[in-house]
Structure formats: C-alpha cells, structure tokens
Design brief:
Chain lengths: ~290, ~600, ~240
C-alpha cells in the first residue's frame, strides 16, 4: 500500500487542484453576491465540452479561450434570467433555482453532446514523467500548472486591480462598498462571469484526463462545494486547501477500493457540515438586534 | 372502459403526489429543504419489497414496518441535520440522498444491486391481488385520506406554530415555540409519507430497482411541489397531475422538433420548470388560482374561528386578574459583561428589577442597552456575571425555554407573524407551550376542537384588554403600526409572563392617543403584578411610566433611581449632552 | 444670494409601517457646517440614511447641486459629490488602511491619479496617524483612528457635501474633539458638512447652524450659538415637559 503513496499523492493533488479551483469559484460568487450557485459544476462541464467541440476546427489555445468566453457569457445569461429576477426571494428559493439551472444545463448538454464521454487530446504530446514509483502525465502537470497560475492571477487581480479591490470590498462590507460608489449589480455580474470562466478553464484542462461528459459537473460541483465549506465559504486559501485535501482523501480511498471514492466524499461532506460551526448568513432574519437604532 | 394506460398514469401520479406532499409540508410549511427526498421513498420501498418478497409477509403488513423504519431513519438523520441552516441543510440532504442512492446500488445482497429484483406481491384483498382499477381505488383513497389529515394538521395548532416559525423565527422562539423539535417532527412525517408512497408504488409495479429513487426523481418531487404550490396541501397532487400532462406533451412534441431527442427531455423540462416557476410564479398553480379568486372576493375569512362572538364574556378586570403571576420574583443582574470580538458592549452592569414594578433602562446611543436586553432574554450570552430570576440562574437557557418559564418580550421592529391574523398571533402565544401535537391534531377530533375553541376564546380576551377586540380577523400586514405594537403586547401576555421585556414600545407611535393607550396598558400590566423592564428613547414616555430608571453609558451603569433623581443627575446630563462646555470654550453651559 | 448646495423639502420616511421622519426640511450652503442634534431614536440617523441614498423616502424632495437626487441610488450620489460616513464607520475591517483609502477614490474613476495623490496628502495632513498605519488592518485601529480613517476615506471621493453620522460615537473626549475640529476645518476649506450628533455640546460649539430633532421633526432650529444657550434643548433631551 505504501508503495502506492507517491502515485496517490500525484493523482490526489491533480484532482484536488480542480476541486480547489471550483471551490474558489464558489467562494468568489458567494462572498460577492451571498448566493451559492449550485450550478457551478455545470460551468466546468460546459468548458470541457465546448473545448472538445471547438478543438476540431481551431488551434487548441483558441478553442480553450473561446470556451472560456462562451461559458462566462452563459454565466451572465444565467444571472440575468434566473438570479437577478429572484433577488428578493428566500434563500430556500434561490437554492432551488440554482439546482433547477444545474439540471437544465445538464439536460441541454445531454441533448447537444449525447451520453458518450468525449475525449480531448492532451495539451502537449509526449511521454509521461516518472518520479520514483509515481507516473505523472503531462496533462496532470498542465492541470497543476494551470490551476496554480489561475490562483496566482486571481490573487493579483483581487489585490492590485481597481475592479478586484471593488469586488473584495463588496465581499467584506456591501453597504460600505455602495457608499464608495461601487455598483452592486455590476459586481455581481463580474463575479458570476469570472467564476463561470474560471470553471470553464478547469474543465478544459481536466478534459484530457477524465473525459468530458454531460454529467461530470454534478460530482465536481458537489466536491468543489465541500472544499469551499472546508474553507468556511469565505476564505479562498481555505477553499483551495480544502480542495487539495479532498482530492488526496479521495485518491487514498480509491487506492484501497475504487468504489469507495464517492462514499468518502459524502462522509467528509456530512462530517464537515455537522462539525463546522461556521454557518452562512441565516434565512432572512438577522439573528440579534444588536446595536439598537 | 377506462384504459389500463390511463389508470396506471393516474396511480403513478397519485403516488408521486403522496411523496411530494411531504415535501410541501416540509418546505412550504416548515421552511426546510430536502433535496434527496426520494431516498426515504426508497428506504420504504425496499423494506416493504424485501419483507414481502423474501420473507413472505403480507404486503399490507409489510408497509407498516417500512414506514416505521423510514420514520426512525429520518428522525436519526434529521436531528443533527436540522441544526444546519440554509445552504448547509440543503447540501446535507443532497449528500444523504446520494449516499442512500449509492447504498441501494452497492448492497447487492440485500437490494439486488443496480438491477434490483422482481416478484414483489401486489396488494391483495380477500385473497386475490388487486386489479389495476382496484389499485387505483386504493391509491386514490390513501391520497384523499392523507390530504384530508394533512389539511387538518396545517389548520390546527401545529399549522399555526409552523407558520409562526416561518414568519419570524425569533418571534416564534420568544413566544415559546421549540422550533427544532417541531421541524424534526415534520421532517419525520414527510419521510413517512414518502415511504408510504414508495411502498404503494413498488407493490403496484411488482419489481424494484434503484432507478426510481435516484437524484433526478428527488428533483422531480421538488418540481411537483413548487409547480402545485408550496403553500397548499392539494397542490402536491395538482402539481403531480400538471407535470404528468406536461411530460406527455413533451414526449409527443419534442421528438417532432428534435428527432434525436431522448431522456434528456426530462432533465431539461424539470430544470426549466423549476427555474421558471420559482422566478415568475413562486406560489405555483394554487397560488395563482388563489390570487385570481381573491380578486372576486373580499378579505378572506377563516369561518370556524369567526363564528364566536367578538366580545368575550369576562370583564377586563377579571382578565387582568387572570394574568397575575403566581410567584413574585425579582430579576437580579449581577456584574454582567458582554464582549463581541474585542469590543466590550456591556461592562460590569448590575441592577435589580423588582416584581410588580416598571424598570426602565435608558442611555445614549451605543450605551449597550439593546445588548443588555438581548442578554436577559437569552439571545446573547454573557462573558461574565450572572442573571438570576427568583434565585434561579438564567445562564445558557434558550429563548423558548425562557418563554416557557414566563419571560415575555416585544421587539422594537415588531416580530409579529405577518401572514396570520391578529387572533392567530395571540393564539400562538396561548398554545405554544402546550396543546395537541402533530398526531393528535390529525386524529383526535373532539379534543382538538375543544382545545381550539378554548385557545381562541382566551386569545379574544387578551385582544380585548389591549383594545384590539374588533381586529381579531384582520391580517397583521393590514394593521396600522400602533395596533401592531399592541398586538405584540397581547401576544406576549398570552404566554402568562411573570416578567415582560419591552424593547422601545413607544417608538413609532405618532399620536398622543396611541401613547396614552400604551401607557394605560403598561400600567395595567404592572398592576396585575407582572414585572416590566423597558428600554426606550422617548424620555417623556419613560419618565412618566417608570418606577426605577437605570442609566447606561459606554456599557456601564452610571446612575440608578427614580425618574426625578435621574433627570437631575449631572452624570446623566453629561452622558446625553456631552461635556459641559468649559470656560475655555467660551460658551455658557446649557442651563 | 447663492443657491444652497443641499435643499431638503418635507421629507417623510420610515421602515416598513414605522414612520420615523415626519416632514423634515433643511438647507445647507457650501462651506457651511450644520449640526443635527437630538436624543436617540428621534430619527437623526434615518435622515442621513435617506440623504445618503440608503433609504428611500416616502415623500419629499432632495436637491443637491441643482439636481433632484431624491430617487438616486447611494452609489450614484457619491459620484456627484454627496458622501456619507455612516454610523459606526463601516470600514472594510479586514483590509488595510491604504486599501480603505484607495477604495474611497473608486468613484472618481481610473483617471485623476494626480488629483488622488493630492487628496491623499491632504488626508495625511489632517490625520497624520493614518500615514503611520498604512499597512495595518483597519479593524485593528483604535476607535478614534478608525473614525479618522472613515472620514479620510470619504475625503478621497472629493466630496462637495460630507454627511457625518455620529462620528464621536464610542470615542474618548480628546478623539471626539479632534474629529470635530477636522470637520470644522473641512467646512472652512469649502466642503459643506452636515453633522449628526447626540453629544449636543460639542456639535453646537463646532457648527454654524443647528437643528434639534425630536420624534422625526425639527421643533427647534437656528444658529448654533443661539441654540447652545437655549434651555429647551435640554428639556427635549431629558423628557422634562
């Protein structure tokens, strides 16, 4: 079993990187808009399938870029069609709306791309690297590298650009952000589009490894959300760390018995939910009238 | 002769509705989401199937342990899960659904794995298995029975308590409702309904597989419940029927438009329906119908409760006497402190509120009055110090427990149950702590009717003493602000308080009559022996009413005494108006 | 006669069914500092929230720099130069002092970096301690420093009118005086200042005009110096009828 450890580490981190990326998208949307977009996984799926379809008729980098842009547009479309009109609805309703969106997107993907998983050729050809007993495919390196680059760029974006700081401000104190002249609706749209585009990138880079199919989004979305919760839903670093941890746990369980992987996720999910004391903002009412008039 | 196809469709629609009505109850009435609800249908179905197919148990009998086991499972799982809120709860139920789905496919020895097994006996009467027509009859009867019982449930005490919790969870807690326990009961009930539905289904089709209990069908239940209307019990079956018709249409029409379309029709339709209905038609079909009907009818009335006379038999004096507490207990606040993060909102505050007196807590903005208030009624925990009431420590007691001990409260921004009438609001106060539970509300007819009548009568008495006798059937949202304040008082009195905490009761009252009426009611409360602690900024109001005044500033007590003494206390003047202007600043101090 | 910078006419507002403001009117000129004093719960903060754009009024009109801004969103009022420093500061507490100040200038757009630098220097001149704490998280500053940051942040938006909601809340007397001195200085430099304060003495000493609010209207108004000597102010505060 221990001989497998390096391989477990490699697969775990590769998979975990994607979970972390999706978790980051959850956190971005939640902190800025206070909405949990249960359809986030579906944007990963769209990115993957779009890249597969477009890669046939254009150079791969262009296909990836196009997939990202189209998915970002889809994110905006979803925001305007379903989220914004329901903005005064209860949390319960919003949860169900995003689940409805997730289902509709899955059905749409099924209709357009069918049931068979579509392969995508790896970004760069060449033999796998061998380190000790672990085999690292080039695509795994691409995945790790892309996610690392994305996280870094995102960090720089939030820290050093005007829009990024405005998004952070929205997340930290939405009231004060308005008083700075920051327009909430614009920020919400940016957050949605950004998260969708980033998820699409994750989908494109992982497609050669896991194959793109219409239902890949469900599991990815769920696991990404679990990872986001491990970071308390508000800490990006925690979300990425949570993703990596989850990936490692899954790879470890998978090395013992392959059918255990899903079970592990759900057990972790339930454990984290019940164990964590951090709760998202409650349903409707503010809990305490602290502070008076 | 009615075709088998049609009857089968009807049977499936009825069982779908039966599973969905549990969801309506859960989501529409108890405000909880369950995203993996078919898991419970699956547990019930598999249990019933295994017991009857493998162990030869009569299917009628098999359904009993099936529902019981599912109910037990739901109670076990629900207890920790219902502590979560919002998204976390949704995700928990989703995870649960997926785990059980997996289990059905993995535990091959028990469940027959992904392909399931056949040979499940049909329900039978007098020896021979039911025909499709007869099965339809049985299912229809069960659906009607369930619908009727559940309608009785939501019109009873349980229904009111659920609605109250949905309208204002804090208001409900402070009126004595144990929201957690209530939600768990409803959760269990919804699981039992799903299990019954699953068993009925499986004894009809006579084979079982994991397929019908997968995630997509949990979603289908949600679509049914929202399409029909979450606030209506019959809505579950209306939604089920509407969805069946819609899916037939989709199956006919879509292949003509998209020749290669297949199973994804379901997914897209469910998804789109859910989004469209929730965004544009949030109360579903029944909600839209109700709105249409309301346009042709005046204010909707609930007949039974209105049949009673509008003025009670007892005199105001007698009603006030009935509110006199059995024991006189002082409230002793000793050296309490509360810190939020690093900020000390309340520091070393002590005072005693004597029974049968009005104690006012005043102080400038930011003094910590509201925090202190929240401390006493259990919404905030002290970081130091003790609060004792009649010698008993109040530390750690939940708000609803305190309410049951006789601590009542009103809120500055009024936490009434906005979707209910004035009478119902007060009734909740009367019956929150005791009354017929879930099962009793559904089944025990004469007792429930008697209890309802008594509760309503008591509520009318309380409305009368605060001057709202004529507003019994008015919906809270239609009441002007001043009357809403009075109603909150009546509701607080309904729990038979020994101590009443009034949070800015005068705020927002515009006319002198409203203020005078409020002062009169509070004086009657005091004369009835109930202790009152109030916080308010309206100085004239406070000073004319209070027996003792406690002044807070910067989280500490700076003065205490009678109104006159406090008004002339230089510390108090300074706290409110700021430092007296010194000679160096040039101005003369305010006289 | 110069047109007032801000004119408020017959404002009524409230929360849900609770009416807080009952027909409030006032006007303010550039370079003027006016104080609104009164006991708590009277509606002072509600008035500023309406002026700042965080609360929709039920009736009435707000005119700013010649424009009707009654129904304009808060984020758009900032761009016009109407800036609110809300009650309890509302800083971005997990962000640094520098980031807070930077965000204050958000409304001015990408350009005007030169103007922004000048304004930053002016803020440091007014509140030197902020320059020392640039890299510190806003939430770790003392109460007085936080208030200075809140005002400094508002100044970065180059306001024509500054609305200050209880700036001395929770501050020690010295820090309170510092803030009000800064406000006076700003008024002298041409910015109009509307100050809401519960601590009447300090506010009246620092302002030109004053309004006393009780139960959502202004029973008393006039030059601040006169009101400082008026015994009715104290009666209103302490409920002596």
């Amino acid at each position: 079993m221990w001989a497998q450890l390096p391989q477990v580490l490699v697969s775990g981190l590769t998979l975990g990187a994607i979970y972390g990326l999706v978790a980051l998208c959850f956190v971005t949307v939640f902190t800025v808009t206070r909405i949990i977009n249960f359809a986030q996984g579906e944007f990963v799926m769209l990115g993957a399938l779009l890249t597969v379809s477009l890669a046939g008729s254009m150079p791969l980098p262009v296909a990836v870029a196009a997939a990202i842009l189209i998915t970002a547009g889809a994110g905006l479309f979803v925001y305007w069609l379903a989220i914004r009109p329901a903005r005064s609805a209860s949390d319960l309703t919003l949860v169900m709306i995003t689940i409805g969106i997730s289902t509709a997107l899955r059905g749409l993907a099924l209709m357009v791309w069918g049931t068979y998983p579509s392969p995508l050729r790896p970004f760069s050809q060449g033999p796998d690297f061998v380190v000790g007993t672990a085999v690292i495919s080039r695509q795994a390196l691409w995945t790790l590298g892309t996610v690392a680059a994305a996280v870094l760029l995102l960090h720089l974006f939030f820290r050093h650009t005007r829009v990024g700081q405005a998004l952070r401000a929205c997340a930290v104190n939405p009231l004060a952000a308005r008083l700075m002249g920051i327009r909430p609706v614009l920020m919400h749209q940016i957050a949605f589009a950004l998260a969708a585009g980033l998820s699409a990138l994750g989908g494109a880079v992982v497609a050669p490894l896991t194959y793109a199919s219409y239902d890949m989004g469900l599991a990815l979305g769920l696991k990404g959300f679990v990872a986001a919760i491990m970071g308390g839903l508000v800490h990006p670093a925690g979300a990425v760390a949570g993703g990596l941890m989850l990936g490692l746990l899954e790879a470890g369980a998978g090395s013992i018995r392959s059918s255990l992987t899903d079970v592990v996720t759900f057990v972790v999910l339930l454990g984290v939910l019940l164990g964590t004391r951090v709760q998202p903002l409650g349903l409707g009412e503010r809990e305490i009238d602290a502070g008076g008039v | 002769m009615v075709s088998d196809y049609l009857l089968t469709a009807l049977i499936l629609t009825l069982t779908d509705g039966l599973a969905a009505v549990g969801l309506t109850l859960l989501a529409g009435f108890a405000g909880q989401v369950s995203l993996g609800h078919m898991a419970f249908a699956g547990i019930g179905a598999y249990t019933s199937a295994i017991l009857s197919a493998r162990f030869g148990l009569n299917p009628w009998l098999a359904m009993l342990p099936a529902t019981a086991i599912t109910g037990l499972a739901a109670a076990l799982v629900g207890a920790p899960l219902l502590r979560l809120r919002g998204h976390y709860l949704a995700l928990g139920t989703l995870g649960l659904g997926l785990v059980i789905s997996s289990a059905m496919k993995e535990l091959t020895g028990l469940t027959g794995g992904p392909s399931g097994f056949a040979g499940i006996p049909r329900l039978a009467l007098f020896g021979h298995p039911l025909s499709t027509l007869e099965y339809f009859g049985v299912t229809a009867l069960m659906a009607l029975g369930a619908g009727w019982l559940l309608t009785r449930l939501v019109r009873s005490r349980t229904g009111r308590l659920l609605q109250a919790t949905r309208d204002s969870e804090i208001g409900a807690e402070m009126t004595g409702i144990d929201a957690r326990r209530l939600k768990l009961q409803i959760f269990t009930l919804s699981a039992v309904l799903a299990a019954l539905s699953g068993s009925l289904y499986v004894h009809f089709v006579t084979f079982i597989s994991p397929g019908p209990f997968e995630m997509l069908n949990s979603l289908k239940l949600l679509v049914i419940a929202t399409l029909g209307g979450m606030r209506s019990i019959p809505g579950a079956w209306i939604g089920a029927g509407a969805l069946t018709l819609l899916m037939e249409l989709v199956r006919d029409v879509v292949p003509r438009l998209l020749p290669n379309a297949g199973g994804e029709q379901q997914m897209i339709t469910y998804g789109l329906l859910m989004v469209l209905v929730l965004v544009y038609l949030p109360d579903g079909i029944t909600g839209a119908a109700a709105r249409l009907v309301a346009r042709f009818r005046s204010k909707a009335r609930r007949p039974q409760l209105d049949r009673a006379p509008s003025s009670p038999a007892a005199s105001p004096a007698a009603i006030w006497e009935s509110l006199r507490p059995a024991r006189l207990q002082p409230l002793e606040v000793s050296r309490v402190a509360v810190s939020f993060g690093g900020f000390a909102a309340v520091r070393d505050v002590s005072f005693t509120a004597a029974p049968g007196e009005v104690t006012a807590i005043i102080g400038p903005n930011g003094a910590g009055k509201t925090t202190l208030f929240n401390l006493i009624c259990g919404l905030v925990h002290p970081t130091a110090g003790e609060i004792r009431w009649g010698g008993r420590s109040l530390r750690g007691l939940s708000p609803n427990r305190l309410a049951r001990l006789g601590l009542g409260r009103t809120f500055q921004n009024i936490r009434l149950f906005t979707h209910m009438t004035a009478l119902e609001n007060v009734m909740v106060g009367v019956e929150a702590a005791h009354g017929p539970g879930v099962l009793a509300s559904m089944l025990r007819f004469p007792q429930v009717v008697r209890a309802e009548a008594q509760t309503a009568a008591r509520a009318r008495e309380l409305l009368a003493v605060v001057g709202l006798a004529g507003e019994a059937s008015t919906k809270v949202s239609h009441l002007p602000f001043g009357k809403q304040r009075m109603l909150e008082l009546a509701r607080a009195l309904a729990i038979r308080p020994h101590l009443l905490l009034l949070d800015e009761p005068a705020s927002g009252l515009t006319s002198q009559e409203e203020r005078d009426a409020l002062v009169a009611v509070i004086r009657s409360i005091r004369e009835a022996g109930i202790s009152v602690i109030l916080v308010d900024h309206d100085m004239r109001f406070v000073m004319s009413l209070a027996d003792r005044v406690v002044v807070l500033a910067g989280g500490q007590r700076i003065a205490e005494g009678t109104p006159d003494r406090v008004q002339s206390d230089p510390n108090v003047i300074q706290a409110y108006l700021g430092e007296a202007a010194s000679a160096s600043e040039g101005g003369t101090p305010l006289t | 006669m110069i047109e007032p910078l801000l004119t408020v006419a017959d404002l009524t507002a409230g929360y849900g069914r609770l009416q807080v403001l009952h027909g409030v009117s006032l006007s303010l000129h550039a370079g003027e500092m006016a104080a609104i004093v009164g006991a708590n719960g009277a509606g002072k903060s509600t008035l500023l929230r309406v002026l700042g754009g965080l609360l929709r009024p039920w009736q009435g009109r707000i005119t700013f720099a010649g424009r009707d801004v009654t129904h304009l969103e808060a984020e758009d009022r900032v761009r016009l130069g109407l800036v609110l420093v809300p009650e309890r500061r509302q800083l971005f507490s997990t962000m640094t002092v520098a980031e807070n100040l930077n965000l204050g200038a958000y409304a001015r757009g990408r350009q005007a970096t030169a103007g922004r630098k000048d304004d930053l220097e002016r803020v440091f001149a007014l509140f030197p301690v902020l320059k020392e704490r640039l890299r510190q998280q806003a939430g770790t500053l003392s109460g007085g420093e936080q208030q200075m940051l809140a005002v400094g942040r508002a100044l970065m938006a180059a306001p024509k009118l500054l609305l200050l909601d209880e700036p001395t809340l929770g501050l020690a007397p010295r820090a309170a005086r510092q803030i009000l001195d800064a406000a006076s200085f700003l008024a002298q430099s041409g910015t109009a200042v509307l100050l809401v304060e519960q601590q009447a003495h300090l506010a009246l000493a620092a302002s030109h005009q004053a309004y006393v609010m009780e139960a959502g209207s202004f029973p008393l108004a006039g030059p601040a110096a006169d009101l400082a000597r008026d015994p009715r102010v104290r009666s209103i505060y302490l409920g002596i009828s």
